[in-house]
Write a structure and sequence with these properties.
The chain is of the alpha/beta class. It folds into 2 domains: 146 residues, Rossmann fold; 82 residues, DNA polymerase, domain 1, CATH 1.10.150. The chain is 46% helix and 13% strand. Strand 6, helix 9 and strand 7 form a beta-alpha-beta unit. Helix 2 crosses helix 3 and helix 4 crosses helix 5. It is globular. It starts with 5 loop residues before the first helix and ends with a helix.
């Protein structure tokens, strides 16, 4: 799936769909201090940034398993609680469940990156804007007011019963706005998410905040930018 020209993106895109976690919302600024406090309270000098990466990796793995096996959809918060509890147990820390849940609640406090609100305000003049997130509905309801810019919708994959990159999660966006997949440009900081969007026929913009390589997937981004300000410059 070769990239298409930016001019074609501008002409054909009706909806800009955004991943939220780490694309628009800054996880590290809230979760690293929360993990640091937790570790300190239990006498550990383990690096909270490393713990965050290991915890998120396990969360991602378990969410993929949840989408593949038969049975009901497991909420994001529960998968996250299990993943963090497991990593803390690996460190030999006896952390009460309520203390783990206190960290998970911090997801509802995430704030947009500094570049986000002004860029979304500009992009909203030309495109419908929607958040499409693996987060639970109550989590998305909590973070939505943290944006100064108006979003035309915030969709939880819980409606589809499967986490991105399952096809059913991306279909929610097309159904909500009554558009074909190629009329949606999906914006994300995560390779797996863009691969999933491109695989169902959406366009894809890789918002590479952390200067990571995209990887060798045949589904290539149509646009690569460093933040939402650069995204607005490219699409307006």
């Amino acid at each position: 799936m070769a990239p298409i020209a930016t001019e074609t993106l501008r002409e054909e895109t009706a909806v800009l769909a955004f991943d939220l976690w780490d694309t628009l919302l800054d996880r590290e600024s809230t979760l690293v201090p929360a993990l640091a406090d937790l570790l300190d309270a239990h006498g550990s000098d383990y690096d909270p940034e490393i713990l965050l990466r290991r915890y998120l990796a396990m969360h991602f793995r378990d969410s993929m398993v949840d989408s593949l096996i038969p049975g009901p959809h497991t909420p994001f918060k529960e998968i996250s609680r299990r993943a963090l509890a497991y990593r803390l147990d690996q460190l030999g820390l006896d952390v009460p469940d309520e203390a783990v849940r206190d960290v998970i609640r911090q997801w509802k406090q995430l704030e947009p990156y500094p570049d986000v609100d002004a860029a979304l305000a500009d992009l909203g003049e030309e495109y419908a804007l929607v958040g499409l997130s693996n987060g639970d509905p109550d989590m998305l309801a909590a973070v939505r007011p943290n944006f100064e810019a108006d979003l035309d919708g915030v969709i939880s994959v819980a409606e589809a019963g499967a986490y991105k990159p399952h096809r059913a999660s991306y279909d929610l966006c097309c159904e909500r706005f009554d558009v074909a997949p190629h009329q949606v440009t999906f914006v994300t900081a995560h390779t797996f998410d863009l691969v999933g969007a491109k695989a169902v026929g959406m366009r894809g913009a890789f918002l590479n905040r952390h200067e990571n390589p995209f990887g060798g997937w045949p589904q290539r981004p149509d646009l690569v930018v460093e933040d939402t300000e650069k995204l607005a410059e490219a699409l307006l």
